[in-house]
Design goal:
The protein is mainly β. It has helices at about 65-75, 135-140, 160-170, 175-180; strands at about 5, 10-15, 25-30, 30-40, 40-45, 55, 80, 85-90, 95-100, 105, 115, 120-125, 150, 155, 185, 200, 210-215, 220-225, 225-230, 235-240, 245-255. The strands form six sheets. A six-stranded antiparallel barrel has the order 16-17-18-19-20-21. It has a four-stranded antiparallel β-sheet with strand order 1-4-5-6. The protein has a four-stranded antiparallel β-sheet with strand order 9-8-12-11, with no helix packed on it.
Length: about 260
Amino acid sequence: MSGSICPYSVLSVRREPSEKSELETQLLFGEVFYVVERMDGWVKIKTEFDGYEGWIDERMYYPVRDKEIELWLSAPGVIIPTPMFKLIREPEKSVQLISAGSRIVFNGEDRNSFVIGHKEFYCQSTVPDRTPDLEEIAKGFLNTSYLWGGRNIFGIDCSGLSQVVFKIMGKRLPRNASQQIEHGTMVSFVEEARAGDLAFFDNPEGEITHVGICLGQGRILHASGEVRLDHLDHQGIFNRELQKYTHHLRVIKRIME
């Protein structure tokens, strides 16, 4: 199966083969995808990380040899934990900024360089050699605007936020809140929630429509309008600015023991 390693800061994946189509998700730098179908200037892909399918502009499809993809996936690699990280792209020495959750595999001639296909990159600064704690990672997204289908520091949705934060922590979660709720173990009482637990919220029909990251002490970080910190109790999320509850709590799950 042909595929690629995303060489772009962010690559939009759409529901239908059209620029007007809804954004389904985004690929971050260094994430792998496989080609499912090609049609009229568009490529239908399946992401390696979470199995999501959608369409990308054919002009953004950069084929990479199967062997290189295998080596990229099997190598230890580094997942960027900071909100942004600067790469230098050769030979033009242009700057490319990549977002938290992007993955780098140092397969170049020295420890600060790597290649994706024929594209060469190097890091001007040292890649962080430690993973910050979960709260530090999550707070790095504060004030990021909400974007349906987004997974990056300039636009992200609620389940994209939880997925990327846990990716940095070494835990693979599916893309949507309705899928993420199937993971982890139940937390019986909201008072027992600790940093890293996920809180899920439903609509009047009982459908899971929202997810946020518990930070302990009644705090929750979530993407609603923007990535923000709010109060969480047994009823749900209380927005102090609006002085009302905005989301109804369904369940809290412990993802990392």
